[in-house]
């Protein structure tokens, strides 16, 4: 299921962040908090997946399906950005390993601040709280857990970054709109800068200019939808309908100039001319005749 796949992705992200602890010990506090949030999100996703698969909560799940899809999509976009920025660790440079990891960390921090005006850890915390709220609503039929986070007039001791179910839902919807808008802008820039669609295909580039298409192309239809008849050969017998054979090749043209190739017809004609030349002379000469004896003659 998609929720389990997202839970496994959260664990992979946590393992990747663990690689920052040794090269950059000065940011270990922030990295550890991120690792903790990733594992907590993985646990919340698995708990929500278990509740979704329970047939007792099927009716409530149908009502919460859009909200679950919203938080799942936003989390997927977030993890995609993290993995993309992790690609900076593969840069080949003369900088030390600790400097390279610190540069990537700064790029991560700046990216998520620019997108949502909050660090990555706060975003993951908001997603984790909303996942817990969804599970609570699915099981209990109401956002009972959100009452723990709602600010009231006489509870000034509660942290200022705690939100109700509706507030969490609103923040994640706004975040998802920003993520989808950024993705759409990126795709539009790629499509505008792609010149592959205007390139000629390889066989068209090799074709000499002015050369017609292959002879196997079907003949264009006449007006009214009628099909153009195939070429008639002079040697075609009467009643031979070329419409049944639209791909019949045209009859070969008779060459106007003599060629070095001798065909069967020319051989036959030359042999006939030679026979007409010497045959009458031979059989026209007188030959001695032999008389045959009649019956009874000696």
Mind sketching the topology for me?
Elements: H1 2-17, H2 28-53, H3 58-86, H4 97-116, H5 120-140, H6 165-193, H7 202-206, H8 264-284
Helix pairs in contact: 1-2, 1-3, 2-5, 3-5, 3-6, 5-6
Describe what you observe in this structure.
With 298 residues, the protein is mainly alpha-helical. The chain has eight helices and no strands.
Strand content: under 5%
Helical amount among residues, as a percent range? 55-70%
Broad structural category: mainly alpha
How would you classify the quaternary structure?
A: single chain
Helix and strand run: HHHHHHHH
Task: Enumerate the spans where pLDDT stays under 50 for 5 or more consecutive residues.
Answer: 144-161, 194-216, 236-246, 260-264
Count of DSSP strands: 0
Distance separating the two termini: 123 Å
Mean pLDDT: 74
Query: How is the main sheet built?
Result: none
The count of helical stretches stands at 8
* Radius of gyration based on Cα positions: 44 Å
Shape: extended
Outline:
This protein is mainly α.
């Amino acid at each position: 299921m998609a929720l389990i796949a997202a839970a496994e992705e959260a664990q992979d992200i946590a393992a990747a962040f663990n690689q920052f602890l040794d090269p950059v010990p000065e940011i270990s506090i922030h990295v550890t908090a991120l690792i903790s949030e990733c594992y907590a999100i993985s646990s919340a996703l698995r708990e929500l997946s278990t509740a979704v698969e329970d047939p007792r909560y099927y009716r409530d799940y149908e009502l919460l399906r859009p909200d679950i899809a919203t938080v799942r999509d936003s989390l997927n976009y977030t993890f995609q950005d993290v993995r993309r920025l992790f690609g900076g660790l593969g840069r080949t440079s003369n900088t030390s390993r600790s400097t390279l990891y610190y540069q990537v960390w700064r790029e991560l921090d700046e990216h998520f601040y620019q997108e949502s005006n909050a660090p990555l850890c706060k975003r993951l915390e908001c997603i984790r709280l909303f996942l817990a709220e969804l599970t609570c609503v699915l099981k209990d039929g109401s956002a009972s857990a959100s009452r723990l986070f709602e600010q009231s007039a006489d509870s000034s001791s509660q942290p200022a970054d705690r939100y109700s179910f509706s507030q969490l839902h609103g923040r994640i919807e706004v975040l998802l709109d920003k993520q989808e808008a950024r993705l759409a802008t990126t795709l539009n820039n790629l499509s505008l800068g792609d010149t592959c669609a205007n390139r000629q295909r390889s066989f068209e580039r090799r074709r000499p200019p002015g050369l017609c298409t292959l002879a196997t192309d079907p003949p264009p239809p006449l007006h009214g939808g009628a099909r153009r008849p195939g070429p008639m050969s002079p040697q075609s017998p009467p009643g031979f309908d070329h419409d049944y054979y639209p791909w019949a090749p045209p009859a070969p043209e008779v060459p106007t100039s003599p060629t070095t190739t001798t065909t069967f017809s020319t051989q036959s004609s030359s042999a006939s001319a030679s026979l007409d030349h010497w045959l009458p002379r031979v059989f026209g000469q007188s030959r001695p005749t032999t008389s045959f004896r009649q019956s009874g003659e000696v």
